[in-house]
Structure formats: C-alpha cells, structure tokens
C-alpha cells in the first residue's frame, strides 16, 4: 500500500483534519521550507506549528496514533 492510499484512508477517519500532498521534485521551495529531504515524509501541524514528523512508509495505525495523541 502506498503512503498516499494510506493517508486517503486515514483522512476518512478524520474528516476535520486537512491532509495535503506535494511533490518535492516540483515543489522544492516547500521541501526546503519544511526541511523535507526524504520521501515519504509526513509533517503534522497544529495551529500552524509543526508538532510531529514521520519519515518513511508508516502503517495507518501509527498515523492514527500520532493524530489522536496530538489533536
């Protein structure tokens, strides 16, 4: 399962949370701004501030755990 499809599933569980995707090859300024150099990287924000980060493929349970602990 790709990270994108995993996040699509997780987003259905948390409809009030915004999920965004970008390609670091075409959006280099965003990658630089958020210090993303590995793919995939998930950056969690709350009130505009980074509150967590996961690098590499993550199982949906791990993402759900971070969301529940953070939000």
How is the quaternary structure best described?
Answer: single chain
Strand content: 15-25%
Helix content: 25-40%
For the biggest β-sheet, the strand order reads 1-2
Shape: globular
| Main sheet characteristics | 2 strands, antiparallel
Q: Termini separation (Å)?
A: 25 Å
| Distinct helical segment count | 3
CA-atom Rg in angstroms: 12 Å
Total E-strand runs: 2
* Overall mean pLDDT: 94
Low-confidence stretches: none
- One letter per element, helices H and strands E, the order comes to HHEEH
Structural class: alpha+beta
What is the topological layout?
Elements: H1 3-13, H2 28-33, E1 41-46, E2 49-55, H3 60-70
Antiparallel strand pairs: 1-2
Structure notes:
With about 70 residues, the protein is α+β, with helices and mostly antiparallel strands. The chain contains three helices and two strands. A hairpin with a 2-residue loop joins strand 1 and strand 2 (about 50-55). The chain is globular, with a radius of gyration of 12 Å. The N and C termini lie far apart (about 25 Å). The mean pLDDT is about 95.
Task: Label this structure with key terms.
71 residues, single chain, two-stranded antiparallel ribbon, alpha+beta
What is this structure, in a nutshell?
The chain is α+β, with helices and mostly antiparallel strands and 71 residues long.
């Amino acid at each position: 399962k790709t990270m994108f499809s995993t996040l699509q599933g997780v987003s259905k569980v948390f409809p009030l949370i915004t999920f965004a995707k970008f390609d670091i090859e075409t959006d280099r300024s965003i990658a630089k701004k958020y210090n993303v150099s590995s793919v995939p990287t998930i950056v969690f924000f709350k009130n505009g501030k980074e509150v967590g980060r996961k690098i590499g493929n993550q199982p949906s349970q791990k993402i759900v755990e971070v969301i529940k602990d953070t939000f």
